[in-house]
Amino acid sequence: MSWVRRARVLLVLIAAAAAVALPPMETAARSKRAPIAYEPSPPPPPPMAPVGLSDRLLADASAYQAYLQRVMAISPAFTSGQSVAQALRTGAAYEPAALLRGAVAYAAVAALQDGAFVAQVRSFGADADARRLMVNRIIADPNYVFAFKGADGAAGLVKEALGGAALRLYGAGKAVKQSAYDVQHQAWSKETIVDRPGRLAQVKAASESGVAGDADGAIILQRAAMGLAPLNLSASPAPAPYTPLLAHALQLAALAALGEASDAAYDRLTYLTTEVNADMCLRMAKLNLNECLAVAGPHYEDIFCIGQHIMMDTGACLAKNIGVGIPLEVTPAPLHVPALRKGATSRARRRR
To answer: Which distant-in-sequence residues (6+ apart) come within 8 Å of 107 by Cβ?
Structure first.
C-alpha cells in the first residue's frame, strides 16, 4: 500500500473516531450547566382545629360551677354556731375576679351547645386567612358575633346557664336570710361570736385563696364544649339588647368554635373573661360582706350576712349583668345588718 493510500485511511479513521466521541463530549458539556431550579409547592395551611376550650379555661369554669354547687347547698336549718361558721367559710371562699372568669368560661361552654351557631362560625372560618381575620374581628368587636346565625339561640343558653343559676342562688339566699330571724328562738343563735377579728381574718383569707374545681368536672365541661356530651340546657332564643358580659361569653364561644381558644391563647383572651360592671358589683358584695361581719355580734347576725351578701348579692350581680331581672317583689337589703329582732335594736344597729 502506498503512503498516499495509507494517509487517506488514517484520515478516515480519525474522522470516524471524532464522530463517535462527539456525543459524549456534548453530554459532558451539558452536564456542567447549572441545573434547572425546582421550587416545591408551599405547604398547605394548617387545618381548622377542633371545637374546644383550653384546659385552663375549663378549670376556671369547673371552679365556678363547684363554688355555686357548694354555696347553693347551704341549708337554712342551722343548728349551732359551728354550722354557721362552716357555712360562712364555704360561702366566702371566692375571689371576685376568679369567680367572674369562671362564669364567663362556663357561659361559653353553654353557648357552644347551640349547633347552628357553631356550624355558622366554622363555615366562615374554613379558610386560614379568613379565620385569622375573623379572630381579630371577634376580639375587637363584641357585636360581631351576633351577626352569625344561631347567635340568639346561643345567647338564650348563656342567659339560662348563668342567669338561671344566679336566680337559684338568690332564692337560696333569701331562705338563709329569713332563717336569721326564725332561728332566734334558739338560745345558741344569740350567743356572741368568739374571736370576731380572727373570724373576719379567716374569711378574708378564704376569699383570696378561692375555690378549685375538680378534674372530673373539667372533663365533663370539655366534652360538652366539643359536642360529645351536651349539657342539660334548654332555652328559647334571646333577643337583643345584650349585656357586655353576655357578649364576652359569645365572643369566647366563637373563638372556641374556630379552635382558637387554646392554652396558648389564654393570656390574650383574659380580657374576655372579665367585665367591668360585673367585677365591680361582685367586689362591692364582698366589701359589704366584710363590713357586715365586722359589726355582727351573735350567730344569727352572721346568718344574715351569709344570706344577704354572700348569696343574694352575688346572685343579683350575676343575674343583672347577664340580662336577667330579679323578681320585683324583692327589695334591696341595707348595707349592714338590720334590726333583726322585732321591737328591739340589734347590737349591730347600736354600733353605728
So the answer is: 158, 161, 162, 245, 246, 249, 252, 253, 322
